[in-house]
Amino acid sequence: MSQIVAKCNGQPPFAHYALLRYHVCMTTNRTYFGSTTAQQRRFLFETWEQIGNVTEACRVARVGRRTFYYWKPRFDAHGYAGLEVFASSAPKHPHRVAQTVHDQVIALRQANPTWGKRRIAQELAKVNQWQPVVSPTTVKRILIHALLWPRAGGAKKGASLPASAPPTYPPKP
User: Fold this and answer.
1) 25, 39, 62, 160: which has the highest count of C-beta atoms within 10 A?
2) Degrees to nearest 5, angle at CA 56 with 15 and 23
3) How many whole angstroms from its chain centre is CA 99?
4) The whole model's pTM is what?
């Protein structure tokens, strides 16, 4: 323990982060530990190897025990190099609509310009044994993006057309 404190000039490691990264949440009374840096994780495992006590190593490195056990499998598999890189926090899009569905929505709207978002969603579900493929709101989002949805402030449903505008009819098959 004295070797670790001597390493940091008598100050606990990462003491300047103490106020920013180590505070008590008022509502749950749980200690908050922010995300760790590669340097902090390296220090945690160096301390653990020297002391042999997980709780004490986490206290000295100012990280939670959960953090230690999260990184331990990587440390066991790859050593200190495994502590350098962690999973990306870049946004992922697991609920993105498939390109085929996107194309079907656009094709249905172009073939049937009077159909709304609900009708297009229902037609896609009908083709798929009545299993919903896409929600009406997603249909609207796709059509807005493709510039096939009327702009806001246009004619409301059921409103009469101005006298100068000729009536529009869907094309006959």
Assistant:
1) 62
2) 45
3) 20
4) 0.41
Q: How far apart are CA 84 and CA 75, in angstroms?
A: 10
Which pLDDT does position 106 carry in this prediction?
Answer: 94
Residue 54 identity (one-letter amino acid): V
Angle between helices 99-111 and 136-145 (to 10 degrees): 80
Distance CA 42, CA 75 (A): 9
pLDDT score recorded for residue 83: 87
- Assess contact for 162 and 154: CB atoms under 8 A: no
Instruction: Let me know if 115 is exposed, middle or buried by CB neighbors in 10 A (0-12, 13-18, 19+).
Output: middle
For the chain, give the mean pLDDT: 78
- Residue 97 makes CB contacts below 8 A (sequence gap 6+) with 134, 138, 142
First to last CA, the chain: 85
**β-bridge partners, 32:** 23
Q: By CB neighbour count within 10 A (0-12 exposed, 13-18 middle, 19+ buried), where does 9 fall?
A: exposed
CA Rg, the chain, in Å?
A: 30
> What is the rounded average pLDDT of the residues 28-52?
83
Q: What span, in angstroms and rounded, lies between the C-alpha atoms of 86 and 74?
A: 10
**pLDDT greater than 60 at residue 112:** yes
Dist CA 59 CA 51 (whole Å): 12
